[in-house]
């Protein structure tokens, strides 16, 4: 049996570079990228993608759609790391921990769309609680998240690491028009009936995410406690290789959340912090925006697809 040929289209960007780094020393695949002189040649890119067993697209949305439209070989399978197909019918959502059968769906899929970095955290926290009937679908959700500046791609990395780095802001909230591209993805895969309010920010660190969602117990079904929310998450991710729900005992000792704690890994830590006196709960997710939020997730999906054959 021939060694699978994996083509990375867009390996010069932040996500593509890390995918290439994670794959370059593997002997179970043949890795193909295009030299700089051919990266913008549509004919050469079309040839490469049609020759691949699996193509990983690390491109802007428009370019990703163009790449998919160039596929003529029906055997080519695709992992799209852009946001072009995240809610497109016929594409399998590349979050293996979404449901019990999601990893199997990814393994057999022709078209897989990698989740967004922020939605990975929000969906991982909210979907199990909604499915368990503990969180109403019409709850007014607010998602707050701080990411490393690499989340803004090459322009943001240049801003913080280039000649004008001294003038870069230590912290900045963005998306103040509340029209960010991620809320539709969050709503679609959590099952919320209303669009969540999403407030993203960048900090002066390269990578990592802390995402938090505050809940008021008085707005949940009568009698629902924070411990039940924790138990539902714990049950959903029981046995997961990459997603850990920190114990309530551990959460009581944590006084802060470090966005860089899991950098360089494909891991994600979920937390439930409970203030019984005020009836408040804080849900949290910590992970690497370039790991579980991007390149790590793509490689996880690739491995599932390769195992399927």
UniProtKB/TrEMBL annotation:
Record-annotated Semialdehyde dehydrogenase NAD-binding domain positions: 5-106
Protein keywords: Amino-acid biosynthesis, Arginine biosynthesis, Cytoplasm, NADP, Oxidoreductase
Active site: 117
Annotated Gene3D superfamilies: Dihydrodipicolinate Reductase, domain 2, NAD(P)-binding Rossmann-like Domain
Enzyme Commission number(s) of this protein: 1.2.1.38
Keyword Ribosomal protein among record annotations: no
Listed pathway(s): Amino-acid biosynthesis; L-arginine biosynthesis; N(2)-acetyl-L-ornithine from L-glutamate: step 3/4
Keyword match Cell membrane: no
Broadest EC class assigned to this enzyme: oxidoreductase
Protein's cellular compartments: Cytoplasm
Annotated catalysed reactions: N-acetyl-L-glutamate 5-semialdehyde + phosphate + NADP(+) = N-acetyl-L-glutamyl 5-phosphate + NADPH + H(+)
Pfam families: Semialdhyde_dh, Semialdhyde_dhC_1
Single GO molecular function: N-acetyl-gamma-glutamyl-phosphate reductase activity
NCBIfam families xref list: argC_other (TIGR01851)
Function: Catalyzes the NADPH-dependent reduction of N-acetyl-5-glutamyl phosphate to yield N-acetyl-L-glutamate 5-semialdehyde.
Name of the molecule in the record: N-acetyl-gamma-glutamyl-phosphate reductase
Native source organism of the sequence: Herbaspirillum rhizosphaerae
């Amino acid at each position: 049996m021939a060694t699978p040929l994996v083509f990375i289209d867009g390996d010069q960007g932040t996500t593509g570079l890390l995918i290439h780094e994670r794959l370059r020393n593997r002997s179970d695949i043949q890795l193909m990228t295009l030299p700089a002189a051919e990266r913008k040649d549509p004919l050469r890119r079309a040839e490469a993608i049609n020759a691949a067993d699996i193509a990983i697209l690390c491109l802007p949305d428009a370019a990703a759609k163009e790449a998919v439209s160039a596929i003529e070989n029906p055997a080519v399978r695709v992992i799209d790391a852009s946001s072009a197909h995240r809610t497109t019918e016929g594409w399998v959502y590349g979050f293996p921990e979404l449901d019990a059968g999601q990893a199997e769906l990814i393994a057999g899929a022709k078209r897989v769309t990698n989740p967004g970095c922020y939605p990975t955290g929000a969906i991982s926290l909210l979907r199990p609680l909604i499915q368990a009937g503990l969180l109403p679908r019409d709850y007014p959700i607010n998602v707050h998240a701080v990411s490393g500046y690499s989340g803004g791609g090459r322009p943001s990395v240049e801003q913080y690491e280039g000649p004008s780095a001294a003038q870069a802001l230590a912290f900045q909230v963005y998306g103040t028009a509340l029209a960010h591209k991620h809320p539709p993805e969050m709503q679609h895969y959590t099952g919320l009936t209303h669009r969540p309010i999403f407030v993203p920010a960048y900090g002066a660190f390269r990578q990592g995410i802390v995402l938090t969602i505050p809940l008021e117990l008085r707005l949940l079904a009568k009698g629902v406690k924070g411990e039940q929310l924790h138990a539902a998450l714990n049950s959903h991710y029981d046995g997961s290789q990459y997603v850990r729900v920190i114990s309530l005992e551990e959460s009581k000792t944590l006084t802060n959340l470090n966005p860089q704690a899991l950098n360089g890994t494909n891991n994600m830590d979920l937390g439930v912090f409970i203030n019984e006196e005020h009836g408040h709960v804080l849900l949290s997710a910590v992970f690497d925006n370039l790991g579980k939020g991007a390149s790590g997730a793509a490689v996880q999906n690739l491995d599932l697809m390769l195992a399927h054959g």
